[in-house]
Amino acid sequence: MGKITEQDIIDSIADACQYISFYHPEDFVKGMVEAYESEKSEAAKNAIGQILINSKMCAMGHRPLCQDTGSVNIFVKVGLNANLDIKKELVDLLNEGVAKGYTDPDNTLRYSVVADPAGKRINTKNNTPAVIHVTVDNSDELDITVAAKGGGSENKSKFAVLNPSDSIYDWVMANAREMGAGWCPPGILGIGIGGNPEKAMLLAKESLMGHVDIHELKLRGPQNAIEELRLKLYEDINKIGIGAQGLGGLTTVLDVKILDYPCHAASLPVAMIPNCAATRHIHFKLKGNGPAVFKKPSLDIWPNIELPMDTIKRVKIEDLTKENLSQFKSGDTLLISGKILTARDAAHKKIVEYKNAGKPLPNGVDLKDRFIYYVGPVDPVRDEAVGPAGPTTSTRMDKFTKDMMEIGIMGMIGKAERKQPTIDLIKEYKSIYLIATGGAAYLISQSIKSAKVLAFEEIGMEAIYEFEVEDMPVTVAVDTQGNSIHTTGPAKWRTI
Questions:
Q1: Cα dihedral 347/353/356/360 (nearest 10)
Q2: What fold does the segment set 309-493 form as a domain?
Q3: Cα–Cα distance for residue pair 381/449, rounded to 1 Å
Q4: Rounded Cα distance, 27 and 281, in Å
Q5: Residue range 70-100, pLDDT digits in tens
Q6: Domain coordinates of the chain in residue numbers?
Q7: CATH number of the structural domain 151-277
Q8: pTM for the complete prediction?
Q9: Residues 186, 179: Cα–Cα separation, whole Å
């Protein structure tokens, strides 16, 4: 038996981080294709179509599926009989691999991890440290699973300790209704039952690494209580009608995965964690014969999809005014061209600080009558204007919306629903809220023809950019009258 070297571990982790950044798991792609083919909602079908087009483009171009290239989760099972030729701590080697993978100049990935989370929140500049879980067994190998989880889906995680007599089904359904679109459906829902608080959360996360096999389970029928619960939740969550990107439709979850563990008789710990439309994970083993080798999927698994361009309106941003925004109605699909600005949480916070201090923004940045795109793009490579640049979850910017409206912005572009007070502000200021498809970041980036940093360069991907876009696909989510597609869409398709 050969030796498992430090370099084998580092290179395998780095290659895994790169691989999952641009290849969806094949079972996930097949699940999305089934959802696309069966979807009856035009808006949801269009969104799934964009995700699948983006997925194929990333597989061909080796660029990230989503601008949020995630925080890294690593599950390692160390064989007690493995021939490990290492002097450094295993955790350090794993983090070296993550750093190497995320800083690869041929496919730069976004650094989203910040240190001092309750304080200065300083970006670590290489996406380390990963969240690492180590267990042991009696094998002679290293069994490793690498996953990248985006913030939008992680932020929707839930945990509770139920009473033993409480209904797990009722708890999951109540939370599924509240999740909305911020986690970028359709995707996988992972559930952990039992153990204790930390065990239940770990089970939920681990369950997401399983294959999409709900249709196989449906065909053969459930054989135990867990499988019965999986099927019932899968069917009933989809009946809620949230649909792709929250637009209303038949498929919200592609699968429901459940892992359980014995627990104390007095408690019932339950956790749920969703995996978004940028589902990314891979499993491999190191046995002493060199670093892991990852097989490229066949491009044949992706269908050839063309979006229905005849139903989409082309709009020049320079022609828009507060007076003529009312021509667009909730649910309209647009292709917008012109100049837009970007800003996320950190930039919004700085903008409000400048506003409250009565100071103009740096470099003469003027937000009046501008569209603000909630995005933190990946750095460009080669001849790109910008790397993958899909939307981030808009609800995080809700608390800044009144200030931004007072400054005089014309509209906002993001993903997922807005809270009612924000919808009321959009109506009051005769503004508009557009959404781009979460999980279609590389596709969206193709419409960005130039990008330059205007302010706050020190905060990296959170800086204010000016993008010049051409035919950027968006949907009117909240129109000037306060009508929200995230309310009307699911209501139309809800059957439970």
A1: -60
A2: fumarase (3.20.130)
A3: 14
A4: 11
A5: 999 999 999 999 999 999 999 999 999 999 9
A6: 1-149+281-289+297-304, 151-277, 309-493
A7: 3.30.1330
A8: 0.94
A9: 12
